[in-house]
Write a structure and sequence with these properties.
Oligomer: homodimer
Radius of gyration of chain A: 19 Å
Shape of chain A: globular
CATH architecture of the largest domain in chain A: 3-Layer(aba) Sandwich
Largest sheet of chain A: 6 strands, parallel
Structural class of chain A: alpha/beta
Number of helices of chain A: 10
Strand content of chain A: 15-25%
Helix content of chain A: 25-40%
Strand order of the largest sheet of chain A: 1-4-3-2-6-7
Number of domains of chain A: 2
Order of helices and strands of chain A: EHEHEHEHEHHEHEHHHEEE
CATH class of the largest domain in chain A: Alpha Beta
CATH superfamily of the largest domain in chain A: HUPs
Number of strands of chain A: 10
Chain lengths: ~290, ~290
């Protein structure tokens, strides 16, 4: 695996591959890698000729009171995982290179970025679209890979790709989970032993929504209430949101049609976890 | 010259050229072409292997009370000019294709877009950066060409290219003028015979600023005052702004150093004209 630590060097590599008609797969990450990331790398390898993984903890997508400074960073452990997973290039950059003092242009997402995590984390998705647009220009991928765990992020990025006509395809892969249902996340490292024990309740609450849906309930309000009720059984969680929405528009319809998404964010201590499950035929619409 | 009227077809062409390592030059326009546009096409032809000109009157960059609906459109006359100028492809699209109902992602410029035309035309530069980013993704140019007449636009777009790491080079070519100094502009077509006679005063006022600069004056305020005084000699003009700024940051320093820009916008009747001249060694900094 080659390590590339500047935009200029990464761009040169990508230009060379493009000139040789190599298919470039790209997995943008913030590091602290886990099996979810590795599944993205595996898919990129199966789809393309070269696989680039970026590690960049993007300050733009963190709020002033969020965990940017304490976000887990362990580049050497990450590099070993990627080497084993068969990535061809590990691309890293720095905030100083990505955002020099004159930096001032942003990619601004629209209404899809407003509810859910967008409401709890103002500016978060603007940070995501801006950094991903820039990384796309540097890495020039044919395909880019994201996890379903960040469902709203995936929707916002697909909308960006469509709206601004990026010449690439996004693939969204299923969330990888621990055996007790907890979605893999870099932030799981923050959890105390006690919190870790309580953590699977978040997924259990979303599964409760899915069961209600499968029993025929189509009211987003009643479906969400069922999920919140299930989550409330764990005193450890402080709810941010648990909502049921249309999986394409992220609007809340009067009644769901054939599918939808149940999405939640909740705190265990200072750690904010998110998760979602797709309802009905929404599963088939994933990239 | 080939005519291409969909994003999908344009993208296919660009992909084919890229696969053959052809150098793509791109001139984005809103049509109503004149010798200024033709000079951009000529330069693109000299620099590259294929030259694409787009004609798209971009609704996003017009304010609600501006001239979007009456903006001059004459596709057949434009096509003849481009054929003669030697363009390889004329790419056209429609607002419906560029901005379908679900469209919601914008490229948001920063402080460079705030003064001058940005102050008079809120949202204008956001419309420009958004459409140009999208066109760049569709046409995949190695170089793109813009006129110096829209000096702030050129600065905002160069900043976008730098900030978001677009893999292309912008070239900004000198303003083409009538023999009496009037900068060529599609909007000159709006002018009555009387207005056309008064129009060169805008350039004369900016030249007066340059003369003061060349005589040693370095105060932006005093330089701008000299220009406004000259413009006021024509009763026909209603001033929007005439300002002297740093040509890189568009800030107003206490004193100019070795260069700067004098930029103005003013109305003749309902027609808003803009122009600018570079001061001192700013000329050498043009793309």
């Amino acid at each position: 695996m080659r390590r590339v630590d500047s935009i200029a060097a990464m761009r040169e590599l990508a230009r060379g591959w493009r000139a040789q008609s190599k298919r470039i797969g790209f997995v943008p990450t913030m590091g602290a890698l886990h099996a979810g990331h590795r599944s993205l790398v595996g898919q990129a390898k199966r789809d393309g000729d070269v696989t680039v993984v970026s590690i960049f903890v993007n300050p733009l997508q963190f709020g002033p009171n969020e965990d940017f400074t304490r976000y887990p960073r362990d580049l050497e452990a990450d590099a070993r995982q990627l080497e084993e997973a068969g990535a061809d290039v590990l691309f890293t950059s720095t905030p100083g290179e990505m955002y020099p003092p004159s930096f001032q242009t942003h990619v601004e997402p629209g209404p899809l970025a407003e509810p859910l995590c967008g409401a709890s984390r103002p500016g978060h998705f603007r940070g995501v679209t801006t950094v991903v647009a820039k990384l796309f220009h540097v890495v020039a991928p044919h395909q880019a890979y994201f996890g379903q765990k960040d469902f709203q992020q995936a929707r916002v990025l697909q909308q960006m790709v469509d709206d601004l006509a990026f010449d690439l395809k996004l693939r969204i892969l299923p969330t990888v989970r621990e055996s007790d249902g907890l979605a893999l996340s870099s932030r799981n490292r923050y959890l105390s032993a006690e919190e870790r024990k309580a953590a699977p309740t978040l997924h259990a609450a979303l599964q409760a929504v899915r069961e209600e849906f499968d029993r025929g309930e189509r009211s987003p309000a009643r479906l969400a209430a069922a999920g919140r009720e299930r989550l409330a059984r764990s005193a450890a969680f402080r709810l941010d949101y648990l909502e049921v929405r249309d999986d394409a528009t992220l609007a809340i319809p009067e009644r769901l049609a054939a599918g939808g998404v149940a999405a939640a964010a909740a705190f265990l201590g200072r750690t904010r976890l998110i998760d979602n499950v797709l309802l009905g035929d929404a599963t088939r619409r994933l990239g």
